[in-house]
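Posting for a labmate who doesn't have an account.
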Amino acid sequence: DGYSHLSAYERKRLKNITENAKFFAALKLHEVSARLNQIATKSQSHVTKRRKPKKVEDETARRRSMRLLRVEPLDVPLLETPARPGAEEYPQVPVGPLPMVPEDQAENSKWTEALLGTWMRISELKADDADRGTPDIKRYQESLSSMVLSEENVRKVVKSRVCSMAIHPSESTILVAAGDKWGHIGLWNVSCRSEEGAHIFIPHSFQVNCMHFSPCNPAHLLSLSNDTLRCGDVTRAVFDEICRSEENFSSFDFLEENASTAIVGHWDGDVAVVDRRTPETSPELSADIGFRRTRTVHVHPVNKQYFLAAGSVDVCVFDVRYLKAKGNKPLSSLTGHTKSVASAYFSPVTGSRVVTVCADDKLRIFNSKNIQVLLIFKKQSNKIKTHENSQPKPGWAIWDPKQEHCFLVGSMAQPRQIQVFQDTGKLLHSFCNVDCLGSVCSINVVHPSQNILVGGNSSGRLHVF
């Protein structure tokens, strides 16, 4: 065959090239066939002789894949990329104010008007300030035991995973707002006890990370998504745009009782100060606090200039009055976390306790001495080892606003339950119902004055005890 002195590999390679050339010739691809025939019929010296390496300066640019460069090849049109199914189902929300029109407005407009009318009416009523002292633990446990979950108080309010919730402070009507991962906000009048008591609004394009009814005007519902902070004003039936940014927002809290300013956390670690009174939709200040990630921010209940930020493994107290663009130092650091921190919150009355949830399967309670003056946190007083309470994505331990020393957290224990702990680490009560609660409630909210607890799960369902 003329190539007997070649190795077995080289002979097999030449045989393959020859067969391929014949195949392409049969397809009448003349140019390709001619080129391959030329390769297959090269002389022996051309097959075995090595090329002399080129000098570095003479080497041409390396050929790169047109596919990786996303360049359309010559004379070969690209196939049209099919649109994602979610693009039509969840369209991008336009910039600016949005009318407060629910998704099902065309079919149930009268029920929607009734829901918004109820929200407006209960927002005008002033709550009774009598008996606002923190109850003793025995009376508190009795009140917890009296709370039950019934079938009519379970409903799918939003379409997807519940990412945030807020409960209206009204003492006459139970009105709950829930935000999901698609930017939907569901309003549910639990007291209505009918199918028409809940409606879905779409004020955001991304998941709703945080929500609060305004403490001074509960006719306003503020909601934070990845790119916008909006205020749903039921008196004007509009979702106003307060702040918009290309940064990913994670959480917010009010810096004043009149809710005119707020501290906003970013997923990339920064925090921003937002003033609702200014016409611009950009933050007043953006500050680098040295975090890689900021998941939650929480303002001290007494001294509003102090706020708590929780990040990857960082939990620190800052003074908003001294924030600047760069070089911010914390007043105090709450150390000891070895993994990602999901949340950190001051206790509701004095702020003398902080509860944190960490992915190392521990709930930590920090205390302080003269927090109003020194803000120097001592080493954590308790570590509650509870692997069943670890909820890293997401899972928040929240204080009961009526009880300075007790907090709640969703549990993965069977049967599924929401647990109430004292700040000593003692388990006080477990909310459960094997018939009505079969999932983990990682997001929970408690009424500020009534014995009402709402738990939200990953399918958009709310459970009201």
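Reply:
Got it, the structure tokens are right above this. The CA atoms of residues 175 and 189 lie 5 Å apart.
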